[in-house]
Design goal:
- The protein is mainly beta.
- It is built from two helices and five strands.
- It has a five-stranded antiparallel beta sheet.
- The longest helix has 10 residues.
- The chain is extended and about 60 Å long.
Length: about 150
Amino acid sequence: MADTPFDPTAPYDAPLDLSAFDDEYDSVEPADNDEVPDGKYQVRVQRVKLDRSQKGDPMLKWDLVVLSGQHANRHIFKNAVITQASLPFVKGDLKTLGLEVPRFSELPNHLDELLDLTLEVTKRTKGEYANVYFNKRIQVPAGGEIPAGDVPF
């Protein structure tokens, strides 16, 4: 077996010492793995990729990071399945982000242009399904933080 950075079958040379975390462990709160609640958020596009749905349809998978407020640094995920019926919505999302491609088939060559864009989104849950709507692009001041206090949207 070739050497790898982590080989779970390899014996430890010495026991792992976690004592440096003892004091802090008692005072930290467990991470909240729940989804962010419904509402409007200012987000940055961290990742976008083309994938396939369970039915095999193409889809865009978005990973959006909340920029401010009590949910800052949390992720909002959006999956946009691409079908004849959903194509106007996908095109609308791309237009909101300022991306217009001459042919839709060229989209894979332009996904990198969508990274790090900032926008306002609305998340709404109906039953067990959550929808994320791209409202508009926004400009984030230098430093990447949206000012605290009243936000004009």
